[in-house]
Design goal:
single chain, alpha/beta, Rossmann fold, 7 helices, 5 strands
């Protein structure tokens, strides 16, 4: 009996700004590519300059951003291309919508549980500092909520695990898919 086709998944990295989503997405993509597996990365910052350039950061705009990314993930997965989506995606109902659009059999929610204190100390873009000064309003973790996943496929704390350990854990999760 021949095995069925593999499922091309979407790895949905969610967590606060500075938790390491983009760094982890790039490293995981490089590892998969080295193994001969094509993969697409949809990074929140890049998406905001392209696919969602017309959106702001209101609750409604955040939801629409997630919807657009989920639709793109579904298209890529249908073409047998795994996707790594790295987005803060702060609201549980928006992530549930993304899972529904992509398909629960393909959606792998990965929570980067790195604390606000660690993320603020990293502050790679200086956004927390601007939010604390009042220069940015509605910033997730400062004056806008982040709703942690209640049942993620995997939880990674990048303050405890290094990038290689995180990639190793993700490869285990993906071993049945890719």
């Amino acid at each position: 009996m021949r095995p069925g086709p593999t499922i091309s998944p979407t790895v949905w990295l969610t967590g606060l700004s500075g938790s390491g989503k983009s760094t982890l997405a790039r490293r995981l993509a490089a590892t998969l590519s080295e193994r001969g597996r094509p993969v697409e990365v949809l990074d929140g910052d890049v998406v905001r300059r392209s696919l969602s350039a017309d959106l702001g950061f209101s609750r409604e705009d955040r939801r629409e951003n997630i919807r657009r990314v989920a639709l793109r993930c579904r298209e890529l997965n249908a073409s047998q291309i795994p996707v790594i989506a790295a987005l803060i995606s702060p609201y549980a109902d928006d992530r549930a919508m993304a899972a529904e659009i992509i398909g629960p059999e393909r959606f792998r929610e990965i929570y980067l549980s790195t604390t606000l204190l660690v993320c603020e100390a990293r502050d790679p873009k200086g956004l927390y500092l601007k939010a604390r000064r009042g220069e940015i309003s509605g910033f997730t973790g400062v004056d806008a909520p982040y709703e942690p996943p209640t049942m993620p496929c995997l939880t990674l704390d990048t303050a405890v695990l290094d990038i290689d350990q995180c990639v190793k854990e993700l490869l285990i999760i993906l071993s049945d898919d890719t």
